[in-house]
Amino acid sequence: MTETIPPIASPELNVEGFTRQYLRELTYTQGTTLERASTNDKYLALARTVRSYLMSRWNRTVTQEFRKPARAVAYLSAEFLLGRQLDNALIASGLEEIAAEGLASLGLDLDELRAAEVEPGLGNGGLGRLAACFIDSLATLNIPAVGYGIRYEFGIFRQTFVDGRQVEEPDNWLDNGSPWEIARPEQEVEVSFGGHTEVGPDGTTTWVPGWSVLAVPYNYMVPGYLNGRVNTLRLWSARATHAFDLKIFNYGDYAEAVRAQTFAENITKVLYPEDSTPQGKELRLQQQYFFVAASLRDFVERVLGPDSDLRELPERITFQLNDTHPVIAIPELMRILVDLKGVPWDEAWAITQKCFAYTCHTLLPEALEVWPVELLSRLLPRHMEIIYRINDEFLAQVRAKFGNDEMLVRRMSIIAEYPERAVRMAYLASVGTFKINGVAELHSQLLREKVLNDFAVFAPEKFTNVTNGVTPRRFVRLANPGLSALITEAIGDGWVTDLGRLSELEPFADDAEFRRRFREIKRSNKDRLVTLLKNRDGIDIDPDTMLDVMVKRLHEYKRQLLKVLHVVAQYDRLKSGELDPASTVHRTVVFGAKAAPGYQMAKEIIALINHVGARVNGDPVVSQALRVAFPANYNVTVAETLVPAADLSEQISLAGKEASGTGNMKFALNGALTVGTDDGANVEIRQLVGDDNFFLFGLTEPEASAIQEAGYHPAAHYEQNPGLRRALDLIASGEFSGGDRSVFEPIVSNLLHEDRFMVLADYQSYIDAQERVDAYYRDQEAWSRSTVLNVARSGFFSSDRSMQDYLDRIWHAKPVPVEL
Ligand SMILES: *Cc1c(COP(=O)(O)O)cnc(C)c1O
């Protein structure tokens, strides 16, 4: 590291400086001219221009951290669902207006160039988006932090519909080049797999790997909001080792060399689609170890330095494990300490436990990762040995504490015996970390009482809660410029980094003029959505209808089916004349959801939504009052236009199944009212916004559990509820499948005979809640009063607050301002 930063000034922060830099990028980096440039050229030049403003801050941040190391946070996550980078870089650097003006002076339109950016789809949904919100907040809070993850060559698949059915296409997000990443091939590290272990005469163990790959880091800027800090997100990409290539080339086998390269590079080829049933995919375990091993090595060798005293590691860093995906880091750190650095086992274990903390993200037992012992022993033989020893010592402690309760010991063992011997990663995480958190109050409580109950009894002090949040920069300031301006006019702009200040809006709920302007903004946000859906999907929606939105991954526990049943019931009532289209509240129901490609039932539900939608929209009577829109390929970019336009937010999971949800928070912050169950963070949203401003329905978690235990009979609801019966019969009749009764039979039959997520049990309560929604919506003054109160009372759901909670309860790192 050089002692002084070379005095290369950033381009001047004004329109002239911006324009000059833009033309320089277009001419000298992109190698074209204003006349010849394609839209992509113009976008790339713009991205590089904005990047150049942040570059000196990035360098300064990194230099400062090397000179004056402070306690840091490393967020380890297999997913970072970043969304578009340009918009966020513009607001973080204070360039938004300058860029718009500068580009206009060249005859270019900022919004048009913005739209050219392909978002990196490096995540499935909520978990990946949370990681992206968290690193944004850490930078804004001035915390020395780094995100570590995987640079998938193909992110989450691009969804299209053919005959209403989901078709997956590869997401070639890197095709046009990404101006936001900087490769650091000189900082590559080698990651090994396979082979065997050997014990030396002195008792030390050596892992003799069978093969290895290189991990090449790509750095992404994570700019704090107007504070001069730019943190780093480091994503690893797999390459074949040079030695490997050379040896094979020496034998002259070109094809074999290419095969080896392809094999190595497969590791970071694709993002695995989430389906809450982790499959024993060897490649997925390779991905996990690959990025975790590279990240630990990177931190220990490069950041701390090769000669550092690793006993100080816990003072320097907390590795936060985002779900179980990075949990193999625990035995990896043990291996580094014990095998490579010669630290005695007990001391190494004490260090390791103090370096890691674990965030659990689920309540579904089938979503807890397990890896077969056979696979782990083959792929990571030394790690398997380490896990055995960790388990032996842990179980000895369990016996010491609770006596020889062998049932308990078997329950708590990190190694499951049935149906096959497998490592329970959530248990390894619970044993190898100093803190375990759930992601909403209810979720943390259920973790303690159910999923990880034995561990909570064994070590209650480890358990805590941190309720999730979303970044107000992207999901309010960027996504909703109209509302942002209104809020700033009313209370100043401090809310962007201190979202609790939204509470100062409370008095404006009673200000008729403020409410009118709020409605006007909602209406113009709907106009933006109309344009987007028209251009992107060829879908026409009416901005003068209530926008009723359910967007999230497709999963049975989230209960998109409950929403479909409501649509079908309304269709039935409108068609039969029971409801008069002229006098009912006009709604547009918007769905957005991807199904994991291997999750059959989820894909059937997508087909059902599309087929019901086609029928509803095609019916001359029904469509006067009800329409369905299902734009394909829901992603962060779509969310940014959809959420600010929504009137009603559907958060209708079965109570006790959704860990937190973050979509629910985005909607409340943008003035949609929630119809929701008492689940995840909905509980806290309702407590904060008040019962009068939230449409609660459905069973509570204890009620649902009690029914399940006593024996749940979904068909009884069908038999006793005429409305429900008509809706289900209509689906079964072939009404939405061209008369073919077999198409949706599996869905109907599953609901009648299994209904694991109690759709039928909550049906009537949901329909009643929707009646209340309609009645309330007719009183637009009351409705808008509630929307203002939702915004004013949702400041708690900022990811800045989440990060502060992690800092106070887990990390204990302090802000370090970057000197300008
Ligand atoms: C916020 C977000 C999610 C999470 O939504 P939930 O309703 O909390 O499941 C998923 N996908 C995208 C693109 C998001 O922006």
From TrEMBL:
In-chain residues carrying the UniProt-annotated modification N6-(pyridoxal phosphate)lysine: 666
Top-level EC class: transferase
GO cellular component: cytoplasm
Pfam families: Phosphorylase
Residues spanning the signal sequence: none
Annotated SUPFAM superfamilies: UDP-Glycosyltransferase/glycogen phosphorylase (SSF53756)
Keywords: Carbohydrate metabolism, Glycogen metabolism, Glycosyltransferase, Phosphoprotein, Pyridoxal phosphate, Transferase
PROSITE patterns xref list: PHOSPHORYLASE
Any one GO biological process: glycogen catabolic process
Cofactor(s) this protein requires: pyridoxal 5'-phosphate
UniProt key word Transferase: yes
Keyword Glycosyltransferase annotated: yes
InterPro entries: Glycg_phsphrylas (IPR011833), Glyco_trans_35 (IPR000811), Pyridoxal_P_attach_site (IPR035090)
Single annotated GO MF: glycogen phosphorylase activity
Superkingdom classification of source: Bacteria
Catalysis: reaction(s): [(1->4)-alpha-D-glucosyl](n) + phosphate = [(1->4)-alpha-D-glucosyl](n-1) + alpha-D-glucose 1-phosphate
Family according to the record: Belongs to the glycogen phosphorylase family.
UniProt function note: Phosphorylase is an important allosteric enzyme in carbohydrate metabolism. Enzymes from different sources differ in their regulatory mechanisms and in their natural substrates. However, all known phosphorylases share catalytic and structural properties. Allosteric enzyme that catalyzes the rate-limiting step in glycogen catabolism, the phosphorolytic cleavage of glycogen to produce glucose-1-phosphate, and plays a central role in maintaining cellular and organismal glucose homeostasis.
Alphabetized NCBIfam families for the sequence: P_ylase (TIGR02093)
Protein name: Alpha-1,4 glucan phosphorylase
Origin species: Xylanimonas cellulosilytica (strain DSM 15894 / JCM 12276 / CECT 5975 / KCTC 9989 / LMG 20990 / NBRC 107835 / XIL07)
